[in-house]
Each structure stands twice: as structure tokens, then as C-alpha cells.
Design a protein that fits this description.
The protein has 253 residues and is mainly alpha-helical. It contains eight helices and four strands, in the order H-H-H-H-E-E-H-E-E-H-H-H. It is elongated, with a radius of gyration of 39 Å.
Length: 253
């Protein structure tokens, strides 16, 4: 028995160089688990950030589209309020379908400006101290814009094709047959009455469904609007003359 054994001194067993023990396995497992956890945390963070970004981007896009959608719906509603009461009769089913199909054309005219506020940029006016305000540029150009914004485009074509109402192409100055059997020439007085009080002059072959525009276009304050529309009709006609044209020049100069 050695001296250390007699004194009760124990020496730890030293592993041989390169020997493997259980503690090494525990340390390796811990490092592996920590590594996997960190990778998962990073992956979840990336996925969450990406999902949030796309969700936020789609929310902004949806909000923009909703704004445009509400505006377009408002345009349609305004036009239909003008037209709808006049084709409630079942006999006008064909005309009703034509009006609904034409509403897309109304919206397309508006979308060309992208936003309602932009319309004002295309119809700038000059101030007048003595009366109503005259738009800048030719009245016929202003009339073309009113043709879309007032809903005329829903029923009247400008290329001669068949529509719910008479086409405006080659209308001014041409003979027009009415439902009462009379044939009249579409002069300025006729065109003015047709716009303001359409029920008084119903063209044969077309339903009497056009709304009354006297409230929007009659009176001194609307004189430029009314004559702008009639000037636009004249620009579409080969028989435009002094008898069919408004009593004010197309150009301000």
C-alpha cells in the first residue's frame, strides 16, 4: 500500500489523451440546440417582416383602389339618377340595356383625367365682371367635355352609329322627323330646345327617355355651357351654318 493510500488521499482519474467522455456529448448537444434555435428565430423574423411588408403594401394599394372605386361609383350614380327615371317603362327594355352598357364609356371619359380635381385643369375659365364666366379656348372643346361629364355620351354617339338617342354626327342643319309626323330642320332653336326640353321634340324612332336639362343648362349663368354643347354639335355636322350655330362665337377672340 502506498503512502497516499495509507493517508486516504484519492487522485482523480485522468483520461488518456484523445479519449471520449459523456460531458463532450452534452456540450455538443447544447451547441446544436442553440444553433437551431437561433436559425429558427432569424427565419421567423424574416418571414414575419416580409409578410407585414406585403400586407401593408396591399393595404395601401387597396386604399387607393377604394378611393378610385368610390369616385367611379359616384360618377355612375350621378348619371343614372339623371337617366333612370326615364326608362322605367318595360317597353324601353332595349334602351335600358343600351344605357347600362354606355355607362362604361362615361367612366372611361372621366378616368382619362385620373381624378375629378384634374377636370378643372382642362376647363379653366376667365373671370368676367359683367356676367357669367366664359371658359378659355373654343366653346366646342368645352362642349366635348360636357358631352361626357353631363352624361350625353350614354345615349348619343358622335360617329353616326345607332344609339339610345339620335347621333350628334350630322344632326345640326339636317332634316329631322319627329314622332308627331312633322319634319323640321335642326337649327339652333331646335338644338337648344332638344337639350333643355327634350320632351317637346321627340325624334321618330327613339324612346322619349331623355331627362330634362333645363335645371342644369338654362339661364344666364349656364349660357356658355349650353352654347358650348351646341357648338360641339355643329363641329360634328357638315351642314353647320349661322342658322345652326349659337349666337356667340366659338372662339373668344
Amino acid at each position: 500500500m502506498s503512502h497516499d493510500e495509507r493517508l486516504g488521499i484519492e487522485h482523480p482519474i485522468r483520461p488518456e489523451p484523445g479519449a471520449h467522455n459523456q460531458r463532450d456529448d452534452i456540450d455538443a448537444s447544447g451547441i446544436f440546440i442553440v444553433g437551431i434555435t437561433m436559425v429558427l428565430v432569424v427565419l421567423v423574423t424574416v418571414l414575419f417582416t416580409s409578410a407585414y411588408y406585403h400586407h401593408y403594401r396591399h393595404q395601401l394599394a387597396f386604399k387607393r383602389m377604394s378611393t378610385v372605386g368610390n369616385w367611379v361609383a359616384g360618377v355612375k350614380q350621378e348619371q343614372m339618377e339623371l337617366i333612370e327615371p326615364h326608362y322605367a317603362n318595360a317597353a324601353h327594355t332595349k334602351a335600358t340595356i343600351g344605357i347600362h352598357l354606355a355607362m362604361d364609356a362615361v367612366v372611361q371619359q372621366y378616368q382619362a383625367y385620373a381624378h375629378p380635381k384634374a377636370v378643372a385643369k382642362h376647363t379653366k375659365t376667365t373671370k368676367s365682371a359683367t356676367g357669367p364666366v366664359r371658359p378659355k379656348g373654343p366653346l366646342s372643346v368645352y362642349g366635348k367635355k360636357l358631352y361626357a361629364s353631363l352624361g350625353c355620351i350614354a345615349c348619343h354617339t358622335v360617329d353616326g352609329s345607332k344609339g339610345v338617342g339620335p347621333t350628334w354626327k350630322n344632326l345640326a342643319g339636317y332634316p329631322v322627323k319627329l314622332t308627331n309626323g312633322k319634319t323640321v330642320t335642326a337649327d339652333y332653336k331646335f338644338l337648344r330646345t332638344m337639350v333643355l326640353y327634350p320632351g317637346k321634340l321627340v325624334v321618330a324612332g327613339y324612346p322619349n327617355i331623355m331627362p330634362n336639362y333645363a335645371g342644369k343648362l338654362a339661364g344666364k349663368k349656364n349660357i356658355y355651357k349650353l352654347n358650348a354643347i351646341i357648338w360641339y354639335m355643329n363641329k360634328l355636322s357638315k351642314k353647320s351654318s349661322k342658322k345652326t350655330q349659337p349666337p356667340m362665337p366659338d372662339n373668344a377672340g
